[in-house]
Amino acid sequence: xxxxxxxxxxxxxxxxxxxHEYRYEERGGTAVSARELGVDEHIVIKTLVMEDxxxxxLIVLMHGDRxxxxxxxxxxxxxxxxxxxxxxxxxxxTGYLVGGTSPFGMRRPMPVFMERSIADLDRIYIxxxxxxxxxxxxxxxxxxxxxxxxxxxxx
Length: 155
Prior knowledge:
Elements: H1 5-12, E1 18-21, H2 29-37, E2 44-52, E3 57-63, H3 70-77, E4 82-84, H4 87-94, E5 112-115, E6 124-130, E7 133-137, H5 139-146, E8 149-151
């Protein structure tokens, strides 16, 4: 298996993780990956590329079975507004195809906001840098390598 920028990043930072491939389904999201891997969708973390009112990008990490309150996120992030990026814009910011976006090894650094309760999980599954490929790791390793701002923005 060819290593993605995310895998290179994790190796450089000496993060222990396991790799999990599954059959990707267009627009299937975390429900499909959780089903295919036989895990609870709550521990599958989605990487969302958003932008603020100045069109500055930011990353939001959220439980697969929850949505983001953009109003609460904007308030906690010190922004006026936050909204999802268009797929082509997200790809330009991250270097990853939508559906394969990993918070690790992105094309350019950007602020990362993580739902606070993710830190309480023993293990999470998150995109490894391509469609149909998740990695499992301890949330503490994600926090150590990305230094996300913890927020309460789940709906």
